Amino acid sequence: DAKTTQPNSMESNEEEPVHLPCNHSTISGTDYIHWYRQLPSQGPEYVIHGLTSNVNNRMASLAIAEDRKSSTLILHRATLRDAAVYYCILGTQTGANNLFFGTGTRLTVIP
Amino acid sequence: EPEVTQTPSHQVTQMGQEVILRCVPISNHLYFYWYRQILGQKVEFLVSFYNNEISEKSEIFDDQFSVERPDGSNFTLKIRSTKLEDSAMYFCASRLGRANEQFFGPGTRLTVL
């Protein structure tokens, strides 16, 4: 499984933008970059995914480096509800495309 | 909005007993998964299921585990003879197609005494 590296924890003030980094220097050409999050006492929840180009959706933006060895999940305006563990996961879109979670980044949002 | 549901929310069992954890995936989804999360640890992949058969399984998914889609709507995980170390949250997930995101259920907390 391709490996990702994320900071263990980050803090953000409420209503400010948050940039969550992920390094994936061994990414292969067919690997997509997926982000999921896990709110306290809940199952993981899809956030966003991309391959090469930056992506935006209603939850977040994903900025992917030109060499694809790193990416950044951007929450444009953190709310208390965004406090969660964020996981950056690599995966192809062949086969069952199972998810292999790392330890993720625990985001604390300060009111 | 469609969602994955799981029952029960909490299951307590004695070591050596069989348990069946139940999931109802989103109705038109084709790929189904089980994951587990031991308290304080990361989410671990157990098994994926597609076209009525196991696609992939992890080393955790040994002969004590089995999965079934008995009636086209439910997706079950059976643990034949539970061990203390099987205590964990078990998450079911489903996916419409390969290129789509996985939707996770709220989990079943299994406690083995």
Strand percentage of chain A lies at over 45%
Q: What kind of oligomer do you see?
A: heterodimer
- Identify the overall geometry of chain B: globular
Radius of gyration of chain A from CA coordinates? 13 Å
Helical segment count of chain A: 0
* Overall 3D form of chain A: globular
What is the CA-CA span between the terminal residues of chain A? 37 Å
Mean pLDDT of chain B: 95
Termini distance of chain B?
A: 37 Å
Q: What are the segments of chain A in which pLDDT stays under 50 over at least 5 consecutive residues?
A: none
> How many beta-strand elements of chain B?
11
* Contiguous uncertain segments of 5+ residues of chain B: none
Structural class of chain A: mainly beta
Question: What are the SSEs and their pairings?
Answer:
The complex is a heterodimer of chains A (111) and B (113).
Chain A: E1 9-13, E2 18-23, E3 32-38, E4 45-50, E5 55-56, E6 61-64, E7 70-75, E8 84-91, E9 105-110
Parallel strand pairs in A: 1-9
Antiparallel strand pairs in A: 2-7, 3-4, 3-8, 5-6, 6-7, 8-9
Chain B: E1 5-7, E2 10-13, E3 19-24, E4 31-37, E5 43-50, E6 53-57, E7 65-68, E8 75-79, E9 88-95, E10 102-104, E11 108-112
Parallel strand pairs in B: 2-11
Antiparallel strand pairs in B: 1-3, 3-8, 4-5, 4-9, 5-6, 7-8, 9-10, 9-11
